[in-house]
């Protein structure tokens, strides 16, 4: 297969345009974002309509010939670039020779919060990219129907978020830019209970739900708050109940990703019993 | 209370000696390590015999007067340092004016793997400091009896590990520098089953243990492998069974910290039922 021409100048207009997507403002304006590295690019290419343009070094194109052929068959733009040019598009040293420009994937809240939704994960003011990405990945693993990031959360197309999802961003529907009250109201209207992960005085014990009248087999929207200050009183008010992961030892708390994993998997287990 | 004299020179011998502990080699040679920031220092001071020396800025000493008084009552060395001097000892910008020199905390394997041990967490070749610290924190939260890091794992006194434990390093007994076979043999001799967290063909489903003859209520040593390549075939051989966190969606896997959280909490729940 004939390879496309090689872009060797970082001043190339296509490179300059793509590099702008490293900034949130430009991602927002264009509705596009960058994906780095073979694993993530493979997942992006597998999701139809996602990849717009592919930049790949000659070496990476030889190592992953399917990337170039998939791009060509899908009528995506595909450019061979020098390693130096690729660094203009990569936020890490882990791009391993390939970066894709993708269309934003987020969907409407009403399309995921429907009568079928069993398990939905809501991030309220989660700011750390690694946490957000980890939770998207685990929501995908636990078979959740969608992840919702409220408007004050981290940008889901931030390169660190994308990387931490390990491809799950292309598997599970994601909703962004909505207020928490909008989410909790629609969830309730669609028959889901809204549980806040929060260790306050009135919180149910995740491991002893029945004793306190909590039904973890029910359809559920889980809400997780900020990594530093947790859920605000105002946000807690919007939820039906709060639930705490029990602390059996001396730790003060769990980190957000771990706590979310225990909660979401406990719902997934109960819902399948 | 009269404050100690102020060290204002980064060339001070005590500062130079303490700064050496930023290197693994010197930590190993001295059996000491550094702890940064008010939260971690508070936990270190609460564990008797742990803190050897305290370096604190005047501002931090005013904000946390108990640090200086605890150090004095405990006959620890305590020095007021200028913010510039403190940066020589701090690996991050988050020291918030206080760094403590602590004695290594690790204990003998035989002292934790005894007839009473219910739940022990073993890290086999875990290399990422953040993962190791997160798992120590969650083992503490789940009420585990100890954490064991095999000899090829990350140094538990690495500053990133210490920080990620969020104080739990001072709560839960930690064993380092032992071979995995030594751990699994002693665990078995003490009556614990040895479970490897690994998604291979013969793995039990964590959510359906009984169907495949797995008893999660039994006393257990959980073994977690490397973040990138998982458990080696050789290490798997040393365990009694392998157990996989079920993947209900499309993610290929969970990250190590999240998977460990789900496994450890599932044991803690079953053991308390």
TrEMBL record, chains A, B:
Highest rank taxon of the organism? Bacteria
Swiss-Prot/TrEMBL GO biological process terms: methylation; RNA processing
Gene3D superfamilies the UniProt entry points to? 3.30.1330.30, 3.40.1280.10
The signal peptide annotation in the UniProt record is none
Q: Where is the RNA 2-O ribose methyltransferase substrate binding domain?
A: 34-108
Which keywords, in A-to-Z order, does the entry hold? Methyltransferase, Transferase
Is the keyword Transferase assigned to this protein?
yes
Q: What's a single GO MF annotation on this record? A: RNA methyltransferase activity
SUPFAM superfamilies, alphabetized: alpha/beta knot, L30e-like
GO cellular component terms listed in the entry, alphabetical order: cytoplasm
Which family would the database say this protein is a member of?
A: Belongs to the class IV-like SAM-binding methyltransferase superfamily. RNA methyltransferase TrmH family.
This chain belongs to the protein called: RNA methyltransferase, TrmH family
């Amino acid at each position: 297969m004939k390879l496309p021409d090689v872009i060797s100048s970082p001043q190339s207009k296509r490179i300059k345009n793509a590099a702008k997507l490293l900034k949130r403002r430009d991602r927002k304006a264009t509705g596009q974002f960058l994906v780095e590295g073979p694993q993530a690019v493979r997942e992006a290419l597998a999701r139809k309509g996602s990849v717009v343009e592919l930049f790949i070094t000659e070496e990476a194109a030889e190592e992953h010939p399917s990337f170039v052929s998939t791009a060509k068959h899908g009528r995506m733009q595909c450019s061979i670039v020098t390693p130096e040019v690729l660094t203009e598009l990569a936020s890490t040293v882990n791009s391993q020779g390939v970066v894709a420009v993708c269309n934003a994937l987020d969907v409407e809240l009403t399309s995921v919060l429907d009568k079928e939704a069993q398990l939905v994960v809501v991030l309220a003011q989660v700011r750390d990219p690694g946490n957000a990405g980890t939770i998207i990945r685990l929501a995908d693993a636990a078979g959740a129907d969608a992840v919702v990031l409220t408007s004050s959360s981290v940008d889901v197309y931030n390169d660190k978020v994308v990387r931490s999802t390990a491809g799950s961003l292309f598997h599970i529907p994601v909703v962004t830019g909505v207020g928490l009250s909008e989410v909790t109201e629609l969830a309730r209207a669609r028959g889901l209970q809204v549980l806040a992960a929060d260790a306050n005085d009135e919180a149910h014990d995740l491991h002893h739900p029945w004793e306190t009248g909590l039904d973890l087999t029910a359809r559920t929207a889980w809400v997780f708050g900020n990594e530093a200050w947790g859920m605000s009183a105002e946000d807690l008010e919007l939820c039906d109940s709060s639930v705490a992961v029990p602390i059996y030892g001396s730790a003060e708390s769990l980190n957000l990703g771990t706590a979310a994993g225990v909660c979401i998997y406990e719902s997934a287990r109960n819902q399948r019993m």
